[in-house]
Automatic annotation (TrEMBL):
Reaction catalyzed: alpha-D-glucose 6-phosphate = beta-D-glucose 6-phosphate
Record-stated family: Belongs to the glucose-6-phosphate 1-epimerase family.
GO BP term, pick one: carbohydrate metabolic process
Residues that span the membrane, as ranges: none
Protein name (database record): glucose-6-phosphate 1-epimerase
Gene expressing this chain: LOC110692272
């Protein structure tokens, strides 16, 4: 299930606390002794907060987010499964993000000497209604871990418990909080091919030496490296994304016109968010009966260094 504490009388000291969130929805708070924390709603297995040791929020959640089923939560880290976007027979981004998950009853307690004590294991199985719209039996297990150094790790395992194969696409739709989108650059995706969702998924090759932002972007980068950096010039902060089992990476910002068209998104909030999403989209995953797929992302936030007046991401990308 999750780790426990020797001082249940003081919830603020618990590495894992089960409590209520907005509109009475069940949520889990993960804490580390350094002061870092994360919050996960059972609705959608949705991470809605990740704060560093200075209590600074690192994820973006819209001030207009609707915490009321069946509407998915706008921001944080939605889970896109078993379909990304609206390319398929299901609702956009699938149904995992607007289902109530359970705490996994088969979760194994963390070993006594483990450094990762702040975690929770969640489980999603299809309901009868789910099987009517996607007729495949599966078990989806998600572990959300808060590392002692402040890293946030999400590990997904999807097992085919059906008698026939099935195919799915997937993304961690991560919304990062940034100071000003015009002051942000993404390193690690240069020279790669991408599918442009604003142009009917037409294929192009990235030409710049970094991705910067001057308007709407909705691109699926293909065959991406295991490490990507987001550099926030104003905050002198770099987010580092490490990923496994997820060959693609979506970069998304709606910009002004699309932001105004979203009912659960503030008109100017696009300036303070950026989605960089580890994903498996171009080549969907097929599981035979009994097979299991694993996909993982690890997020860290580190101080950025300067080199000739510019942020120096290469030190971060080459680092551990």
């Amino acid at each position: 299930m999750a780790s426990s504490s020797s001082d249940p009388k003081n919830p603020s000291l618990l590495p894992v606390e089960f409590t209520k969130g907005v509109n009475g929805l069940d949520k889990v708070i993960l804490r580390e002794a350094s002061g870092v924390s994360a919050e996960v709603y059972l609705y959608g297995a949705h991470v809605t907060s990740w704060k560093n040791e200075n209590r600074e929020e690192l994820l973006f959640v819209s001030s207009k987010a609707i915490f009321k089923p069946p509407k998915p939560i706008r921001g944080g880290i939605p889970i896109c499964f078993p379909q990304f976007s609206n390319h398929g027979i299901l609702e956009a981004h699938g149904f995992a993000r607007n289902r109530v998950w359970k705490v996994d009853p088969e979760s194994q307690p963390s070993p006594a000497n483990s450094v990762n004590k702040s975690y929770v294991d969640l489980l999603l199985k299809p309901s009868e209604d789910d099987l009517k719209i996607w007729s495949h039996i599966f078990e989806f297990r998600l572990r959300v871990t808060l590392g002692p150094g402040g890293d946030l790790m999400l590990t997904s395992r999807v097992r085919n418990t059906d008698t026939k194969p099935f195919t799915f696409s997937f993304a961690y739709h991560t919304y990062f909080s940034v100071s000003d989108i015009s002051e942000v650059r993404v390193e690690g995706l240069e020279t790669l091919d991408y599918l442009d969702n604003t142009k009917g998924r037409e294929r192009f090759t990235e030409q710049g030496d970094a991705i910067t932002f001057e308007g709407e972007i909705d691109k699926i980068y293909l065959s991406t490296p295991t490490k990507i950096a987001i550099l926030d010039h104003e905050r002198k902060r770099t987010f580092v994304i490490r990923k496994d089992g997820l060959p693609d990476a979506v970069v998304w910002n709606p910009w002004d016109k699309k932001a105004k068209a979203l009912a659960d998104f503030g008109d100017d909030e696009y300036k303070h968010m950026l989605c960089v999403e580890p994903a498996a989209i171009e080549k969907p995953i097929t599981l035979k009966p009994g097979e299991e797929w694993r996909g993982r992302q690890e997020l860290s936030a580190v101080p950025s260094s300067y080199c000739s007046g510019q942020l120096d991401p290469r030190r971060v990308l080459r680092g551990s």
